[in-house]
Amino acid sequence: MHTAPPPVNNSVLSVSALNRLVRDCLESAFPLSWVGGEISNLTYAASGHVYFSLKDAGAQVRCVMWRSRAQTLGWRLENGQKIEARALVSFYEPRGEFQLSVEAIRRAGQGDLFERFLQLKAQLENEGLFAVDRKRPLPGFPRRLAIVTSAQAAALRDVLTTLHRRSPQVAISLFPTPVQGEGAGLRIAAALAAAGRSDCDAIILCRGGGSLEDLWAFNEEAVARAIAACPLPVISGVGHETDFTIADFAADRRAPTPTAAAEMAAPERQRLLERLSQLQARLQRAGERRLGDQRQRLDWLASRLVDPAEQLARRHDHLTRLGDRLRRALLAGTAQHALRLTALARRADLAAPRTALRHQAVDRLARRLQQASEWQARQRQMKLNALAAGLKQLDPQAVLARGYALVRGPDGRALRSSLTVNPGAGLKISLAAGSLAATVTEVVAPAEAD
Question: Going by C-beta distance under 8 Å and a sequence separation of 6 or more, which residues neighbour residue 41?
Fold first, then answer.
């Protein structure tokens, strides 16, 4: 929409007001547009702003590109270059000069290339070639990396220098290929296929910065499909941070520069060593802590261990007490039966006139009592004999008689493990007949259980 000029009147405008009106009219009348021409009168100011003229055979116009826009250009302007500038029409009020405020610049003729770039990107994206779920993870600890680039490229030196500084343990395989010019795309695709068949763990596809035309080989469909078909993860480090290619979208990882691609491909060796040292320290502390716990448990178990002789003495005392209780029970039972027999005898004496029958009954009861007492005594004696036999089996002397030996340490306690004594310690070995004094010459640790 055009801004209507102010109505004519007799008021007097200042120069500043007039220039402001002109600027408002120009900026509102012209949208953001592409303007083509040749660069002349080029000046790079110390502030970072770029000033130049854009001309053709019939006219020229002043242009300014502010520093924030110029820093993202990626290449240096030169007088005589044919360019296409995306700019806003502006008016510099202090000097009353008409000029263009440039936001982006491309080399002349790259408009068609950019359209082809967008069309191919949309096509491959619709096919799912750029889908996130098909991106493969990078190896955490690669042993060998493949580099696909030109053998003369400065980017190759940057990548090799970075890898040598960060990860000198990683081996490198170079798959050289042209990265610019006729047929470069197909040769890059062939190099990627060869790298995918190698014993490498990942691939770095890299090239230095340049114009859209310079980087066009990485925008070809063959390269994108070769990346997607590659069995190894691919890192794309093409151009500068502001450069984007089809290869960047197809790759498993996109790095802003070749150097960044090298940093992304391999972990820093020093950090790995530091991490390994930390894990080793943690493992050592855990081992020492577990060993201390086991030592405490061993001491606790040792405190609960009872000497076999002491245990045998306890069992013998218990058996003696059982024998005493058995004898007392037998005597008490016999006394009770005797009392009962006496009572029956008195009752028999009092029962008349069947005294003879009573005497016979008493005799039978006496015999039954005698038989019951003898049977009970035999049962108790058999039980006592069984307990005595069990006690005899626990007798250390009986164990020694079978060829075993009882080994006591310097503290007099019986030894159950070779780990409780040290070489040079004195031992006392008890046999079935006599005893031996011995000195430890070697300690053999018990085999660990599976």
Answer: 51, 52, 53, 79
Query: pTM of the full predicted structure?
Result: 0.45
DSSP SS3 for 50: strand
Please count the residues of the chain.
450
Buried-state track 305-339, b at ≥16 Cβ within 10 A, e below 16: eeeeeeebeeeeeeeeeeeeebeeeeeeeeeebee
What is d(CA 26, CA 96) in angstroms, rounded to the nearest whole number? 12
Angle of helix 221-229 relative to helix 110-126, nearest 10 degrees, comes to 30
117 CB contacts (<8 Å, ≥6 apart)? 212, 219, 246
CA atoms of 98 and 89, how far apart (whole Å): 8
User: Please, what is the Cα angle at 439 between 436 and 444, to 5 degrees?
Assistant: 115
Tokens of 42: 């080029």
Q: What tens-digit pLDDT sequence spans the chain (450 residues)? A: 455 555 555 678 777 787 788 777 776 677 788 888 888 899 999 988 999 999 888 889 899 998 888 887 767 888 888 888 888 888 877 777 788 889 888 777 655 667 777 788 888 889 888 888 888 888 888 889 999 998 888 888 888 888 888 888 889 899 999 888 888 889 999 999 999 998 999 999 988 877 777 788 888 889 999 998 999 999 988 877 767 888 888 899 888 888 888 888 887 766 766 777 778 878 888 888 888 788 888 878 777 776 777 778 888 888 888 888 888 888 888 888 888 888 887 877 766 556 677 778 888 888 888 888 889 888 888 888 888 877 777 777 777 777 788 888 888 888 888 788 888 888 888 887 888 888 888 888 887 654
Alpha-carbon dihedral 397, 400, 402, 404, rounded to 10 degrees: 160
What is 15-108's CATH topology? OB fold (Dihydrolipoamide Acetyltransferase, E2P) (2.40.50)
Domain 113-267 sits in CATH at: 3.40.50.2300
Domains of the chain by residue range: 15-108, 113-267, 308-394, 399-450
Which pair of tokens denotes residue 50? 């770029």
Whose CA is closest to 242, among 257, 231, 260? 257
